[in-house]
Design brief:
With 265 residues, this protein is an alpha/beta fold. It has a single domain, classed as TIM Barrel (Alpha-Beta Barrel), CATH 3.20.20.60. The protein has twelve helices and eight strands. The chain has an eight-stranded parallel β-barrel, surrounded by seven helices. Helix 2 packs parallel to helix 3. The N and C termini lie far apart (62 Å).
Length: 265
Protein backbone atom coordinates (compact mmCIF):
# COMPACT_ATOMS: atom_id res chain seq x y z
CA UNK A 1 0.00 0.00 0.00
CA UNK A 2 1.18 3.53 -0.72
CA UNK A 3 0.83 4.55 2.91
CA UNK A 4 3.75 2.20 3.68
CA UNK A 5 6.09 4.32 1.57
CA UNK A 6 8.01 6.54 3.98
CA UNK A 7 7.08 10.22 3.91
CA UNK A 8 9.99 12.53 3.17
CA UNK A 9 9.60 15.16 5.88
CA UNK A 10 12.53 17.21 4.60
CA UNK A 11 11.02 17.55 1.15
CA UNK A 12 7.64 18.40 2.66
CA UNK A 13 9.29 21.15 4.71
CA UNK A 14 10.91 22.65 1.62
CA UNK A 15 7.65 22.57 -0.31
CA UNK A 16 5.90 24.38 2.53
CA UNK A 17 8.55 27.11 2.50
CA UNK A 18 10.39 26.09 5.66
CA UNK A 19 14.15 26.21 6.21
CA UNK A 20 15.96 22.95 6.97
CA UNK A 21 19.21 22.51 8.88
CA UNK A 22 21.13 19.40 7.96
CA UNK A 23 24.00 17.46 9.54
CA UNK A 24 26.72 16.17 7.22
CA UNK A 25 28.45 12.82 7.58
CA UNK A 26 31.60 12.88 5.50
CA UNK A 27 34.12 10.31 6.77
CA UNK A 28 32.93 8.42 9.86
CA UNK A 29 30.32 6.02 8.56
CA UNK A 30 29.05 4.41 11.73
CA UNK A 31 25.34 4.02 12.59
CA UNK A 32 26.02 5.67 15.95
CA UNK A 33 26.79 8.96 14.15
CA UNK A 34 23.33 8.85 12.56
CA UNK A 35 21.73 8.23 15.95
CA UNK A 36 23.70 11.06 17.55
CA UNK A 37 22.60 13.50 14.84
CA UNK A 38 18.98 12.62 15.57
CA UNK A 39 19.53 12.93 19.33
CA UNK A 40 20.96 16.41 18.73
CA UNK A 41 17.69 17.37 17.05
CA UNK A 42 18.43 17.09 13.34
CA UNK A 43 15.70 15.72 11.09
CA UNK A 44 17.96 15.05 8.12
CA UNK A 45 21.51 13.91 7.45
CA UNK A 46 23.57 14.38 4.29
CA UNK A 47 25.89 11.43 3.65
CA UNK A 48 28.81 11.94 1.27
CA UNK A 49 29.63 9.24 -1.27
CA UNK A 50 31.36 11.59 -3.70
CA UNK A 51 34.51 12.37 -1.72
CA UNK A 52 34.62 9.38 0.60
CA UNK A 53 35.31 5.66 0.83
CA UNK A 54 31.69 4.83 1.70
CA UNK A 55 30.25 1.75 -0.01
CA UNK A 56 26.64 0.62 -0.41
CA UNK A 57 26.82 -1.97 2.37
CA UNK A 58 27.79 0.66 4.93
CA UNK A 59 25.25 3.12 3.49
CA UNK A 60 22.53 0.49 3.84
CA UNK A 61 23.40 0.01 7.52
CA UNK A 62 23.35 3.74 8.18
CA UNK A 63 19.97 4.09 6.48
CA UNK A 64 18.58 1.34 8.71
CA UNK A 65 19.88 3.24 11.73
CA UNK A 66 18.28 6.44 10.41
CA UNK A 67 14.92 4.72 10.15
CA UNK A 68 15.02 3.72 13.82
CA UNK A 69 15.22 7.42 14.77
CA UNK A 70 12.93 8.74 11.98
CA UNK A 71 15.72 10.61 10.20
CA UNK A 72 15.75 11.46 6.48
CA UNK A 73 18.89 10.49 4.56
CA UNK A 74 20.10 12.51 1.58
CA UNK A 75 23.10 11.08 -0.28
CA UNK A 76 25.58 13.10 -2.28
CA UNK A 77 26.46 10.58 -4.94
CA UNK A 78 29.42 10.55 -7.33
CA UNK A 79 28.67 12.06 -10.70
CA UNK A 80 28.51 8.99 -12.82
CA UNK A 81 26.46 6.28 -14.45
CA UNK A 82 22.89 5.17 -13.92
CA UNK A 83 23.58 2.44 -11.35
CA UNK A 84 25.20 4.99 -9.00
CA UNK A 85 21.89 6.86 -9.05
CA UNK A 86 19.41 4.08 -8.40
CA UNK A 87 21.28 1.94 -5.87
CA UNK A 88 21.13 4.43 -2.96
CA UNK A 89 17.38 4.71 -3.53
CA UNK A 90 16.97 0.94 -3.48
CA UNK A 91 18.67 0.69 -0.07
CA UNK A 92 16.30 3.36 1.22
CA UNK A 93 17.77 6.84 0.69
CA UNK A 94 15.20 9.65 0.76
CA UNK A 95 17.00 11.84 -1.72
CA UNK A 96 20.08 12.33 -3.84
CA UNK A 97 22.34 15.25 -4.68
CA UNK A 98 24.15 15.34 -8.04
CA UNK A 99 27.50 17.19 -7.96
CA UNK A 100 28.90 19.63 -10.50
CA UNK A 101 25.72 20.17 -12.50
CA UNK A 102 26.85 22.44 -15.34
CA UNK A 103 23.70 22.81 -17.41
CA UNK A 104 20.02 21.97 -17.72
CA UNK A 105 20.71 18.95 -19.92
CA UNK A 106 22.67 17.35 -17.07
CA UNK A 107 19.86 18.14 -14.64
CA UNK A 108 17.33 16.52 -16.98
CA UNK A 109 19.59 13.48 -17.35
CA UNK A 110 19.69 13.15 -13.56
CA UNK A 111 15.90 13.30 -13.33
CA UNK A 112 15.57 10.71 -16.10
CA UNK A 113 17.74 8.28 -14.13
CA UNK A 114 16.21 8.98 -10.72
CA UNK A 115 12.48 9.13 -11.45
CA UNK A 116 10.02 6.55 -12.73
CA UNK A 117 7.70 7.09 -15.68
CA UNK A 118 6.25 9.53 -16.62
CA UNK A 119 8.93 11.83 -15.15
CA UNK A 120 11.86 9.58 -15.97
CA UNK A 121 13.03 6.16 -17.01
CA UNK A 122 14.24 4.61 -13.77
CA UNK A 123 14.09 0.83 -13.70
CA UNK A 124 12.37 -1.21 -11.00
CA UNK A 125 14.69 -3.25 -8.82
CA UNK A 126 12.57 -4.44 -5.88
CA UNK A 127 14.77 -3.03 -3.13
CA UNK A 128 14.13 -1.85 0.41
CA UNK A 129 12.31 1.26 -0.84
CA UNK A 130 9.57 -0.91 -2.37
CA UNK A 131 9.48 -3.28 0.62
CA UNK A 132 11.37 -5.71 -1.61
CA UNK A 133 8.77 -5.61 -4.35
CA UNK A 134 5.72 -6.15 -2.14
CA UNK A 135 4.17 -2.69 -2.51
CA UNK A 136 1.55 -2.09 -5.17
CA UNK A 137 3.59 -1.23 -8.27
CA UNK A 138 1.64 1.78 -9.50
CA UNK A 139 1.25 3.29 -6.05
CA UNK A 140 4.91 2.65 -5.27
CA UNK A 141 6.28 4.34 -8.39
CA UNK A 142 3.93 7.30 -7.96
CA UNK A 143 4.93 7.75 -4.32
CA UNK A 144 8.62 7.34 -5.14
CA UNK A 145 8.34 10.11 -7.71
CA UNK A 146 6.67 12.48 -5.26
CA UNK A 147 8.60 11.60 -2.08
CA UNK A 148 12.21 11.32 -3.27
CA UNK A 149 14.16 14.57 -3.23
CA UNK A 150 16.59 15.55 -5.98
CA UNK A 151 19.21 18.25 -5.66
CA UNK A 152 21.93 19.47 -8.00
CA UNK A 153 25.10 21.22 -6.94
CA UNK A 154 25.95 24.55 -8.54
CA UNK A 155 29.71 24.68 -8.10
CA UNK A 156 31.05 25.66 -11.53
CA UNK A 157 30.95 28.82 -13.63
CA UNK A 158 28.93 26.95 -16.25
CA UNK A 159 26.28 25.98 -13.71
CA UNK A 160 25.85 29.58 -12.63
CA UNK A 161 25.61 30.72 -16.24
CA UNK A 162 22.81 28.20 -16.94
CA UNK A 163 21.13 28.36 -13.53
CA UNK A 164 17.86 29.78 -14.85
CA UNK A 165 17.36 26.74 -17.09
CA UNK A 166 18.56 24.31 -14.41
CA UNK A 167 16.04 25.66 -11.90
CA UNK A 168 13.27 25.23 -14.45
CA UNK A 169 13.85 21.46 -14.81
CA UNK A 170 10.89 19.46 -13.52
CA UNK A 171 11.88 17.02 -10.80
CA UNK A 172 14.70 19.10 -9.34
CA UNK A 173 13.89 20.33 -5.82
CA UNK A 174 17.14 21.85 -4.57
CA UNK A 175 19.95 23.91 -6.06
CA UNK A 176 22.90 23.62 -3.70
CA UNK A 177 25.72 26.13 -4.06
CA UNK A 178 29.19 24.68 -3.40
CA UNK A 179 31.19 27.80 -2.46
CA UNK A 180 34.66 26.23 -2.34
CA UNK A 181 34.56 24.56 -5.75
CA UNK A 182 32.77 27.58 -7.17
CA UNK A 183 35.54 29.89 -5.95
CA UNK A 184 38.10 27.62 -7.58
CA UNK A 185 36.07 27.57 -10.79
CA UNK A 186 36.18 31.37 -10.81
CA UNK A 187 39.91 31.28 -10.17
CA UNK A 188 39.63 32.99 -6.80
CA UNK A 189 39.99 29.95 -4.57
CA UNK A 190 43.19 31.31 -3.05
CA UNK A 191 41.52 34.52 -1.91
CA UNK A 192 40.40 33.92 1.67
CA UNK A 193 37.02 32.60 2.78
CA UNK A 194 35.36 31.30 -0.38
CA UNK A 195 31.73 31.86 0.56
CA UNK A 196 32.36 35.54 1.26
CA UNK A 197 34.09 36.33 -2.04
CA UNK A 198 32.14 38.84 -4.13
CA UNK A 199 31.97 36.53 -7.16
CA UNK A 200 30.59 33.69 -5.05
CA UNK A 201 28.11 36.06 -3.43
CA UNK A 202 27.03 37.19 -6.91
CA UNK A 203 26.48 33.53 -7.82
CA UNK A 204 24.27 33.13 -4.76
CA UNK A 205 22.20 36.07 -6.00
CA UNK A 206 21.70 34.40 -9.40
CA UNK A 207 20.79 31.05 -7.87
CA UNK A 208 18.42 32.75 -5.43
CA UNK A 209 16.61 34.56 -8.23
CA UNK A 210 16.27 31.39 -10.30
CA UNK A 211 15.02 29.24 -7.43
CA UNK A 212 12.52 31.88 -6.33
CA UNK A 213 11.18 32.16 -9.86
CA UNK A 214 10.73 28.42 -10.33
CA UNK A 215 9.65 27.43 -6.82
CA UNK A 216 12.81 25.55 -5.89
CA UNK A 217 15.00 25.77 -2.77
CA UNK A 218 18.54 27.15 -2.54
CA UNK A 219 21.04 25.60 -0.16
CA UNK A 220 24.68 25.58 0.81
CA UNK A 221 27.15 24.28 3.37
CA UNK A 222 27.97 26.90 6.01
CA UNK A 223 28.24 26.94 9.76
CA UNK A 224 26.29 29.34 11.98
CA UNK A 225 27.59 32.88 11.72
CA UNK A 226 27.65 35.93 9.47
CA UNK A 227 28.01 33.93 6.25
CA UNK A 228 24.94 31.87 7.07
CA UNK A 229 23.03 35.05 7.84
CA UNK A 230 24.04 36.44 4.44
CA UNK A 231 22.84 33.37 2.53
CA UNK A 232 19.63 33.24 4.55
CA UNK A 233 18.98 36.88 3.69
CA UNK A 234 19.36 35.99 0.01
CA UNK A 235 16.70 33.31 0.35
CA UNK A 236 18.69 30.21 1.33
CA UNK A 237 16.49 27.55 2.95
CA UNK A 238 18.79 24.50 3.17
CA UNK A 239 21.89 24.66 5.36
CA UNK A 240 24.44 21.92 5.92
CA UNK A 241 25.42 23.56 9.18
CA UNK A 242 27.59 20.94 10.88
CA UNK A 243 29.55 17.79 10.10
CA UNK A 244 30.81 14.96 12.24
CA UNK A 245 34.51 15.78 11.82
CA UNK A 246 34.03 19.36 12.98
CA UNK A 247 31.78 18.29 15.83
CA UNK A 248 34.30 15.74 17.09
CA UNK A 249 37.26 18.09 16.68
CA UNK A 250 35.50 20.94 18.46
CA UNK A 251 34.29 18.67 21.24
CA UNK A 252 37.72 17.18 21.87
CA UNK A 253 39.46 20.57 21.64
CA UNK A 254 37.02 22.31 23.97
CA UNK A 255 37.23 19.53 26.53
CA UNK A 256 41.03 19.54 26.45
CA UNK A 257 41.25 23.30 26.81
CA UNK A 258 38.81 23.27 29.73
CA UNK A 259 40.70 20.41 31.39
CA UNK A 260 44.04 22.21 31.01
CA UNK A 261 42.63 25.22 32.84
CA UNK A 262 41.82 22.95 35.79
CA UNK A 263 44.95 20.81 35.71
CA UNK A 264 47.29 23.70 34.97
CA UNK A 265 48.95 21.88 32.10
Amino acid sequence: MSENFRTNKTKAALISGETVNVAEINRIFDPAVVELAAQAGFGCVWIDMEHSHLDLVALSTMILAARTVDLDVIVRIPKGPYNQVIKPFEVGANGLVWPHCKNADEAREFVQMAKFQPLGKRGVGGGRDSHYGTLDFNQYTERANTQTLLGVMIEDVEGVDDVEAIAAVEGIDLLFVGPSDLAHSYGVGHQGVHIEHERVQSAFDKVAAATAKHGKAMGTAVGPGESMCSVAAKGGRWFNCSHELGALTAGYRNALQAAEVITGK
